[in-house]
Amino acid sequence: MNAGPLVVSSGDPTVDRRIEWARALLSEGNAADAAEMLAEVTRRVPDYLTGWFLLGEARETAGDKVPAAEAYARALALDIEDRFGAGVRLARLGHGAEGMSAAYVRILFDQYAERFDEALGRLAYRGPELVHAALGAACAALGRPFAFVHGIDLGCGTGLVGVRLESHVGTMDGVDLSPNMIRLAARRGIYGELAAADMLDFLRTRGDEAVDLIFAGDAFCYLNELGPILAESRRVLEPQGLLAFTVETHGGAGILLRDTLRYAHAEAYVRDRLAASGLELLSCTDAWNRKEKDVPVPGLVVVAMRAE
User: What is the pLDDT of residues 203-214, one digit of tens each?
Assistant: First the structure.
C-alpha cells in the first residue's frame, strides 16, 4: 500500500508544474525522463524536499541505485521527521537499517483512511478471521472460555479485527498512528479508549492496570525489530494473558524489507524474539494474511501467553 509521496510546494509555480509533469512521466513508466526533469528541479531549488525524494524514486525505478540513494539521503537530511519515508527506501537499497518513521506511517494511512477497508477487500485481507480463529483454538487448547475482560488492539486501523473480536472482549482499547484511522474506528462504537499514537509508546505509557488480551492484525509488518513490542506486550499482560498477531514471513533468516516497504519476519526470528521477551508460544501457523497481485503473501498467525 503506497499512496505516493507527500507533496510540499516549492513556492515557485513553474517548479511545481515541473513536479507534476515528472510525476506524470513516472506514472507512464518513463522514469529516465522524469529523473532528468527532477535533477533540473533540484539544481534550481537545492533545498526542495519533494524534488529530492521524487528524484530518488525516479532513479530507483530506472535502476540507478547509487544515484537514487544519494537523492533519498538528501531528502532525509532535509526532513528530520522523514515524512516521505526516505529512510526505509534507503534501507531497501542496502544503505542502513532504518525503520519506518512514525511521520511516514501516519501520513500514509491518513491518506488511505477513507478507502482503507475497500482496498483491503481487493487484497482479500483476512487478518480478522485469522486472529479470531487462532485465539479460539488457543483458548480451547488451554481449556478456558474464549472470553477476555480487557483487550488492546495494536495498530487498530478502522477496527476490522476489533469488530471480529468484539463479542469476546468486555472492554477494548485501540491505538493507531493515524488520526484519520482512529476517527473511523471510533464510529464503530466498540472501543473504550482510542489513541492516535505509536503502539509501542502507547504500551510504554500505560500504568499498572494489566490486560488479559493484546492483538494486532497486519500491524507488525511496519516494524523491523519485534523485540521491543513483544517485551512491552508481556509487561502489560497479566499472567495467563494472551498476545495474538499476524506477520508476513519469508524463507530466509531474520528480517526482510520487501519491495512493498513492509517487513517480513522469518519464523525462527519470531520464535526467538518471543522467547527472549518471556512469552510462551502457544501456536505459530503458516497462513497468508492478504494477497498482492492475486498471489497470497506468506505469513504467520501467532498466539503467545504470559505464563507468569
Answer: 999 887 899 999
